[in-house]
Amino acid sequence: MRNIDSYSYQCGVIDCFNEMVYAGVKSLALSHPMDSAEERDALLPYARELCQRYGNQLYIEDEPLLSDLFPLSLNRGKHNILFYRAGHVLEEYLRLKERKAALVAEGAYFGGNRSQVAWEYGRLLSYPAESIRRLIAENTDREQV
After folding, report:
1. What integer is the mean pLDDT of 33-44?
2. Where are the beta strands (DSSP E) in 49-122?
């Protein structure tokens, strides 16, 4: 198989996810997590061009939502670009982050509350229920709060 550089790979991912958001397959899509803001920012001109082409919007995320949906090491300290079409989707994502922060501050981020955050995140990403259940069940790299 031919090697592909990281920038070109990320551009392909960004194009694919923008098309999925445009087609209504996903309400919210995430770029692959990147180790640095500089790496992510190098992709922004291309991401903005694609958003304009597809009629989507983007949000620069430096503090991604950490939940039991994905392994902690995949997202902690990483930088993403979020893609969405409707403004209410970004609002729901930001409210979910706020709700999780409030639950942590109240000492209530466990059990059903913790599961609910992961489930709602999965729904925002338009994952089927069985996929959400499987991702949560298989995730052993969870945030300690």
Report:
1. 98
2. 57-61, 80-84
